[in-house]
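Blinded run. Sample ID left blank on purpose so nobody reads anything into the name before looking at the predicted structure. Input follows.
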Amino acid sequence: MISTTFDRHVVLIVDDMPDNLSMLSDSLDESGHIVLVATDGMSALERLDRITPDLILLDAVMPGIDGFETCRRIKLLKSVSHVPVVFMTGLSETEHVVRGFEVGGIDYVTKPIRPQEVVARIGSHIRTARMMSQTRGVLEHAAHAVIVLGGNGLPLWQTSKASIWLEKYFPAGSAAPAGHKLPAPLQLWLNENLARQRQGGGADADCIAPLVVKQGDSELSIAASLAGQGHGITLLLEEKHAATALTVRASKEAGDDAASASSFDGFRLTPRENDVLMWLGKGKTNRDIAEILGMSPRTVNKHLEHIFVKLGVETRSAAAVLASGMAQPAGGGLLQ
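Blinded prediction complete.
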């Protein structure tokens, strides 16, 4: 897959009408964009196997698979699911507009096409997408997890930590790709609170009580932040290990080595993650750990990502500090 790293933004136009393609290509080229063209949905999907554009301008009505089905398939492709899709349509009836949003579109323009308007909207959506991408990169390393919902109530994107926590706390409705619904209990909680906010005239929009889901000694708190009328919703997730934290603290204060040996049990580390964490606590690098445990450095890094999430820490050094204070008996676990 070729990733577009040019300063000029890349726009993929999908339309079966030569006149539309010519007019839009000329307008976008004059405004400084790099233009790619596909004349049907299948051709567009084939192009997306090789290149990731900054935005897709998609005709709703085409021979073969229509624009709605094309967009649905695009949103199932992990490599390009984040790319904004703007529909071009002469179908301005409500059901068609709603369908476009349901399959993952973020906007639509009506035919006959007004090139200047299209260029302006494309520029705005690309800037927003770039900002979201940068924000997502920062949030991936944060202690919390984030899910951003579009105006249609469907997830636009979520951090990897959010995916892991949704799978853990909502196993029957595990994390879905962008454009798919939230787990049913979470969606129900959100819908009920949004309805309550509307009945209250929109007052206290940011005062929705968090949803708390418990599992063993852990709990997941989900808070909703409403950006405003017509805008998206951000869900902020935070995992807490209250009982386990108390166990760790008590074992340290009492100097109880046996308690220390099992104090990470509540974090549900796999045996391999325990091994990686043990050597991390001994100051070993990823390459050292890989050689010791017979795996690749990349696999070690993947284990560490999961370990950070389960421990509720943000950095390698924070995990190492926790690991270095724990004990491991001869049969396995962590050594002090």
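Unblinding after everyone has recorded impressions. The longest helix spans residues 115-139.
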